[in-house]
Amino acid sequence: MVDRGLLYREWMQHRMVFWLISLWLVLINPFVIYNIHSNYRSCLLHSDPKYCEFIVDYSQGSLFSYSWGSGVVLAVCLLGLERTKGMMDHLLSMPYTRSQVYNTKFWLGGAFVVVPQTAGFGLATLMLHLYKPDKIYYFNHFIIGAIIISFMAYALVMAAGTMTGNIFAQLLTAFTVTILPFLIIGLPVGNLEVIFNIKIGDAFSFFQQYYASRYFIYFTPITYVFPDWVRERKLLLLIPAAMSILFYIIGYFSFIKGSVERNGHFFLSEKLNRPIQIVVIIIAVLGFGLFGYSESNSIIGYIIGMFFGALIGFCISYFLIYKKVKRM
Q1: Residue 172 lies in a domain
Q2: pTM exceeding the 0.85 threshold for the entire prediction
Q3: Where are the transmembrane segments (predicted)?
């Protein structure tokens, strides 16, 4: 499953990134608690103690909310960067199976996403026992959730990297997936509201209802960028955990079955170019159509918006998908 020789190769290739990310993830949460305690001590020195409380509250998130960025960076380095540099061809020419290559990369990177955060969790817990805050809110739920979400982000960007041939394509594909439920449900329904002359209010009633749906919205990965999930039930974290497994499976089969000869192209499989271009144009038509309707509140504005959407969607998709990126 994971080869020792490949582990050494990946470590030597990316050890500086591993060290920096590990250091950041281990220290960030203890630093947050230390900073809260320092502010409390400063309050005691300059104010009446009755106005000072030592409260550790994660209901609004913290700097640790951005731990998912570490997963994105690792996935880009492990796949996107090597694709752009043309190093993946050499790696796959070595006496290892594609399954070994992907699993080694995936689980090594995943370990550097999860283990340092777990270590930081332990250090932060120890600091809380030493400092003894007056109140603690959402600490365990937030930290565990941040670890799961960062691993989900890592698995998503890794899966995107198995289908794309450069860093930009990898990140853009991953971002598109993070808003995919909105694109495939929100845009079509919003257009139906316009076509059938349903009152959409000051903005778009469906979009507002979409956001208000507390259960459905958490199937949209980009939702977890914001800390609102902290105040939801702990079982909510089963959703990003399940999505992590799904992204791993997609990435695994895409890597072992996909092409590797088109490094630098947007998609490694040339068969994806035309279907994805059509999808991009459709999304642009629907999106600009709704924008035109919202600005003019008329069907004329809606049609004009669709026209410009088709034009912009075609140009963007053509230059993005069919233009090869030069190797770094």
Answers
A1: no
A2: yes
A3: 16-36, 63-81, 106-131, 137-160, 167-187, 235-255, 276-293, 299-321
